[in-house]
Design goal:
By secondary structure, this protein is mostly beta strands. The protein has one domain: Beta Barrel (Thrombin, subunit H), CATH 2.40.10. The chain has one helix and eight strands, in the order E-E-E-E-E-E-E-H-E. GO terms for molecular function: cyclic-di-GMP binding.
Amino acid sequence: MSNNNRKEPFRYSMEVPMSCWIRISEINGTAITSKLAEVDLIDISKGGCKIRTPLDLHASSNSIKGVLRLKFSEEEYDFNAQIRWQRQLEPPFFHYGLSLLLEDDEKEKINAELRTLAGNKKIKVI
């Protein structure tokens, strides 16, 4: 008998990486203003996501916060996020793990959108 005490939220992988955008808002506690940069969304859960970009943000030596802009269907969402890790897995691209800093209503919005995408076979549970 399997005893599954899953604590982490389900993570969904994009069948094809989805374009989204990130804007850096803070580096090492100092607020900054940056432009939106297009990135690829690789996977997502209500707790975090993985993105890919050719930009080297030097996240391993800096504390970086930003705003992730996602467009799932017709609606765009801006979510506060913090970069947790950076790896160069497939040069010239860097992969970043982001922790999403969400309110309960934002988590519900993401869950509803993810269920719709899963139903349309655009994402899969990993």
